[in-house]
Each structure stands twice: as structure tokens, then as C-alpha cells.
Model the fold of this input.
Amino acid sequence: MLAATTLDGDQNPTPFVVALRILSNNRSLPEKLSAYLTDVFTQALQVLADPESITPQTLPEAIKLAVDLRESASLRDALASAGTDTISAKVAQEILTSERRFAAPR
Amino acid sequence: MRPRVDLNLVARALRHLNDSAYFEDRLHQFTSHIVAAIQHVLDNPGVYDAAIEESFARTARSVQAYLAGSTSNETPYEVVYCLKDALTRWKLGGAAIVTFMTEGHNFHLQPLDPWDFIEKSIANYDSKGFKLVVAMIGVPDLYAHKPVFCVPLFHELGHFVDIGRYNITVTSLALNQNLVAAPGYNPQTEYFHRLEHFADLFAACFVGRSSVAALEAIAGAAAASQSHPSTVQRVAVVEAFLAGRNHPVVDLFQAALKRLQLPELKIVFETVDVTPDFDDARTFTPKNIEQVYGMFDSAWSYLFTAIDQNRNPWALPVRKDADVESLTNDLTEKSIRNFAIRQGWNAATSGP
Amino acid sequence: MPLLQAHEIKRRLALTDQDRLFLDPLLDVGQIGEVSIDLRVGPDFLVSVLTRKPAIDVSPPDRRDIASYFRMTRREVGDRFVLYPGQIVLAASLEYVALPRSLYADIITRSSYSRLGVHLNTMIQPGFRGCIPLELVNHGNNPIEIVVGSRVVQMRLFDLPVSSAYQSGTTNRKYLGNVRPAVSRAQDDKDLAVLDRIRRTNP
Done:
């Protein structure tokens, strides 16, 4: 009813979600996807530190992640300590769980 | 089923669709490129992670399902004509719009961007720069030739512009945590409620109060839920916007739009009155596209006033609401179509 | 009944009162001829389809909806539509027409299309509102490509000495305000029920 809905909120995963799924299963990312994920994390931390740094070029996933990071101290700490290019399976899974909050409702 | 099996089936279905359906040229190219990307994955077993193949299969299946649902002759062409103009104002003039028929009152948006997925995840496939943006929007099949009842499509287009392209609502959350959804702060509810407010305001820019009149008709008494603000609250926001009054919800979005260097929310439609023409069972002749937008609000008001007041301006010996509804929607449709035809003719006959 | 000539057609088109002749869109004033107005074929077509029934039955009681014998298809302006020999296709004018109560109209094929075997001859009542129904039949041996938006028919207008009400009697006009081709509503003719009762009581 006048809602942005997919038939299944997880039916069409984005590259961000796919990358996190691969990492959460302890597999390694292809180069392009890995570079993209690093960009997302880097930008997310920038936006978290300064929301006014958002530009038209800021990756939407980075903005979403920044909002999630604002809500979760544990996620913030995990990302800060791991560095943006060595995300553990556990952290990847935590981010995935957070990301699902932004899936459109049925 | 297994992803590679599904990909094969989808490719076959898309090839058949491409050969048999009446699409605009760009959609034929879109379909061909999706098929080519699928074939690339099938021709390179083991190159892509299982999660990538599985996700691509889901994406391709969705594309196939929505395209297949759009090939009927029931597309609301006249409303889509207006939606395309609306997208142009939001720097999305190159986007294609695909509508597919649904049941009940089911208007919805499929925020799908296969090219983003292909570019980032199917790294070895070269799409040669092809990247058509497609908005896939569900329309109740009962309303296919009923443009007045299709005003919710503008709301869905608002969702497309937001979550499908620019993530305006998420940006508003990053910039400003002030509560829209109350009481208490639940980030998920806050996000969902803002999504709806943005889509309502986006629609109101084009179709005025009819954007929430449709909501009142479908869910007038709806209380706030996890996914939607209450109808009363949504109406209040839109009415404040249309009246030019300040409202914190509107301010949230204007700030996000400014940060993203996007157009601000502002009234686009021009107020018109279809009554003299429709009372004479004649089409209305809009002078510009802004008046075409204005027609939606006027026709909505005309129709439901005629029903509520039992009007019979055509001196029908037997007056029925169904005839009033049919005539109003047909006149609206034809008025928009005539405008589009005139525009096309004038463009083709002007210049050298 | 005086046949309207060009100057009178133009005068009526410019009126804004109940005597106005309304045509929308009039894409080219050149459509107005000395004694007629050319009309264009619109983008929607109802094509007849073969079914398992041997005939279209308009009479009660066990009749199939006439709409099931036709399929709607749509083109864009400038697209082509092929009319096959012997085929009947229901189309409608691109123009939405509103006749005042004092005018009656004949619609006939333009000479260029008559010569190809396309024939149409229909009448439009005073006070009519809608896109003009075009029952196109190809009587020739060759399929004919019709371009959507081309001028296929012409409308001759006659001035009536006494105005005539479009809605009169006890039943509504069947095709008021049609903006696309509509299938026959012959099944709605009340006489058919009477004739059926006569048939049943025949010795």
C-alpha cells in the first residue's frame, strides 16, 4: 500500500551485501569487490565523523553504514580496530544484520 | 534451484521475451545485455564465488519477472508519460519506466539496479558502457486505464528517486536524527517513516493533494505502524507543504537534497479546473505539462464530487457511478494523450 | 440539410458556446477541406480473433460476450498497422470530437484509401462525444499498411434545422465518451429479448 516494497526484502542483494556474505563465510573477495568494500568502509567512517562531508559522490551504502555505526558502539569499535580492509567474518555478519534493517518492508 | 540452472532458464526466458514482446528499443537492448552477462557467467564456471552467482540469479530472475509482467497492452501509457517528465526534473531523464500489472491495490516499486551489481560483482564482463536505469513499478491491473486512480504511481516514483537512486532519506538520517516517528526512537521505524514522507511529498509536487487523497481512500484510518506513519500524520505533512507552511519533516529532506545537490521539493503542478470541459464530456486542453499534472488533482476532485453529490451533467437517463467514473478517467486519459500527441507533432514539424 | 463548408467549419471550431464544434487535437488546420475535415486513425485497434464458437451470437440466452471475439492492441503515433484482406478491425479517430446538437456527421474513407480497398461509411449523431469509431475493412487483395496518425477518413458535417438531444429516451447512449475502439454492444439491444420471447412462443 503505497509502500516501497519488494516481494522479499532480501531477494535482490546489493554488491555490498554480497561482499559481506562472502566474508561472513570466510571466503576471500575478488579484487574489484574488495576495493569497493574498502571504499564503503572508508567513506562510512568519514561520514560518521562529519555528516556534512556527504557529497553527491558519497556511496549510498557508506551513508547507510555510517547511520548504523552511529547506533552501535561495538560495530564502531570492531571496524576501527580491524581496519577497513581486514574485516573478520564476525564483523561482516554483524554489518549484514544491521544492513537488513534498511530492507524495505513488505 | 541451483543458481547456474536458474541463470540458464532466465536467459532462455529473456531471449524469448526479447523476440516476442513490444518494448521500446532501449528495453530490448537492456534485455540483450542482461542475457549477455548471464551467458558470460555460464561460460566461466568457477570464476565467480557461489554467493555472486546466487545473487545474480536472484537479480536476473526479478528482472525477468517484472519485464514479463510489463508486456501486456495494459500499461498506463499516459501516466508513464508524466512520470518520465518527472524523472527528467530529477536528473533521471535517461531512465526507462517499466510497469507491471499486480492484483488488488498493490502499487509498489522494485528498486533494482542490475548494472550496479554487474559492474561490481561480475568484474570480467564488459557491458561496453551500457547502463540503462530502469524503474520497475507495479500497477493494479484494475487501474490500467484509470489515470485518476494511478496517482499513487507518483508516490512510487518518489521511492525510486530516493532508495532507487539517491538515498535521500538515508542522507537525511545521517544529517539529522530528529525524530519523525514517535514516541521513542527506533532507527528502523524512523527510516521507514521518513521514506513514506519523502514519497508523499515527491508525489504532492506533481499531483497535489490527490497524492494523499488516494491514501485516504485506501487507508484513511491507518494508525502508525512500524513501516508507515499514520495517514493523519502523512496528510498533515503534505497539506503543510502545499500550503507553503514550514514543517520540520520537509526541512529534513530539503537539507538532505541540498547536501546531495539535488532539486528541492517544490510545487510543479499548475492548478486547473476540468469541470467545464468534463461536464460537457469534452477533453481538457492543457497548455503545458504543468497543467497536465494539475489535471490529476482536478480530475480526482471532479470524480469524487460527482459521485458524492450524485451529479449527472451529461443528462444520462440512467445515472450510475460506474459511468461517471469511466467517463472521468477516459477524458483524463485522452486529455493527457492529446497533449503528448501535440507535443510530438509540434516537435516533428518545427525546425528545419 | 446544408453541408458545412470550410469557412463555417472554421467558425464553428472557434466558438466557445453550446454550438461549438470541438476537435482535439487538430494537428494541422490543413485537415479542414472545402466541405469536410480529415480525421486521423488513432493508436488503438481491436482485432477480430477466431474462437471455437462458429458465430458471434448477439441474442440471449446462451451468448458469449462479444468482447471475447476481439483482442486489443496498441501502437504509437507513426507506427504501422497491417490491415489484411477481408479483416475487420475496430479503430477510432485520433481526434476526440464533440458535435453540437445542431450538427450531424457522415464519416467516409478518403479517396486515397478507398482506392486501396479500405471502406468505411458511418454516421455520427448530433451531440456525439468521443473518438469517432472506425470500422475498417480491407476489401482488396493485398494487405495494407496503415500508419497510425495518418488521415484515413473524412468527416462531412450537416446543419440540422432543429437541434437534436443526444441523450433522450430511457436508456443511455452506448458509446458516450469512448476514447478508444469499443466492441459492439449489440447484445444490449432490448429488442433482442422481445424477439427471443416471440421465437419461443412461435408455434
